[in-house]
Design a protein that fits this description.
With about 180 residues, this protein is of the alpha+beta class. Helix content is about 30%, strand content about 25%.
Length: about 180
């Protein structure tokens, strides 16, 4: 009898937990509610090149704060973080560098295919489905710079919100390629 009561108790708790989670998950984001809502119709006068220059000059407080935190890090920790990625800087020897103002739904179109051995790998491999809090109709600055040779691939990208100037995603990579035999 005690065993049956214990099992019933566990089932009741499990059921209430599952019901609570489903309610919370539905309430978190509806299709039309995002933390970063659509701003597709807003006009922003700053050009992509003006914004790029502003990043390099630390014009905005959000970028000044990031730079200050970086400077205050121990030197060993600085080596693991690339300031030129977070405060985007074009690669000096890049084959391709571009800067565009895009909607978030268009970001995936810029994935570049890298031929690596017998496989193909996208870079930067941005999947907007992981950013549920961002409206696909929100404007972003997209910066991308890379060099792809037979021996290696080097790339750097950053995505900044046009309205808030905050970085949404950034990264860099170095991938040596194996030589064909």
């Amino acid at each position: 009898m005690k065993k049956l009561t214990f099992i019933a108790y566990i089932l009741t708790i499990s059921l209430s937990f599952l019901m609570a989670n489903s309610v919370n998950s539905k309430a978190a984001y509806s299709d039309n509610e995002y933390i970063n809502s659509s701003n597709k119709e807003k006009v922003f006068s700053e050009t992509v090149d003006e914004f790029y220059k502003a990043i390099r000059e630390l014009k905005y407080p959000v970028h000044q704060e990031y730079y200050q935190k970086y400077i205050e890090m121990p030197k060993q920790e600085q080596r693991h973080r690339n300031l030129d990625t977070k405060l985007f800087k074009d690669m000096p020897d890049a084959f391709v560098s571009f800067r565009k103002k895009v909607l978030f739904s268009e970001v995936e179109e810029f994935n570049y295919l890298i031929f690596y051995g017998n496989s193909i790998r996208p870079y930067p491999d941005i999947d907007i489905s992981y950013h549920k809090a961002v409206s696909p109709e929100r404007q972003f600055y997209f910066f991308y710079s890379f060099k792809d040779t037979e021996k290696e691939f080097r790339g750097r990208y950053a995505i900044y919100d046009v309205e808030t100037k905050v970085i949404l995603a950034a990264g860099n990579t170095y991938m040596p390629k194996s030589s064909p035999k």
